[in-house]
Amino acid sequence: MTQRPRLEICAFHIESCIIAEQEGAYRVELCDNPIEGGTTPSYGTIKKVREKIGIKLYPIIRPRSGNYFYTEDEFAILRQEIMLCKQLGCDGISVGVQNQDGTIDKDRFKKIVEWAGTMGVTCNRVFDCAPEPFEALEAIIECGCERVLTSGLKSAAPDAGKLLGELVHKASNRISIMPGAGVKSSNLAKLKEQSGAWEFHASARVAAPNPVTYINQQVSDYGHVYIADPAEVHAMIRVLNE
Prior knowledge:
Layout: E1 6-11, H1 14-22, E2 27-30, H2 43-52, E3 56-61, H3 72-87, E4 92-95, H4 106-116, E5 120-123, H5 133-143, E6 147-150, H6 161-171, E7 176-179, H7 185-195, E8 199-202, E9 205-207, E10 226-228, H8 230-241
Parallel strand pairs: 1-2, 1-8, 2-3, 3-4, 4-5, 5-6, 6-7
Antiparallel strand pairs: 9-10
Helix pairs in contact: 4-5, 6-7, 7-8
């Protein structure tokens, strides 16, 4: 089955979500804390983004950074966050859980899919933390996820075209393999050809200018606001449509 190519934008700011929709992205993965690799956004952020955009919205469900091996309390938090996403009308979630040995926690993942109900479930990059990718793939399929976000076990997906292609072949339309991490308009065409994937994940992020006129240089915790670059999102859409 041939699928129309799609781009998912990893957004850390409401403006990025709006840009993603304007420039033709199919879906937004909404996150907080870009430096930490993405954690669950706030209730207010999810609510306002849902009101602002009409494309697919998948908040990441990740109560903290670090590993995906959660305590009972953390797993309870995860469930509550899933329920909030359902209440707010999200189309799906991006989530992952692992056992202490790094393998996919199938028991908990099946509970997550059950809690999600009619929402779709993307397995996030917990997949890239698993010791054996093809075993992890079968486990995720068994749990009922609709796609796997993966860099092909590398720091950047464009460096893993061969493995990503093998994963797409092994998945055999049972689940979508969505390459993500380090994906840009300059490497997307080659990645698309090497992997055979039809969904791709990118942030296209740039640091937004600080509009504040006074900055205390002795304070180091300002951080940055990251937004999607409209021109880069547009360029990736153009590559996918060629």
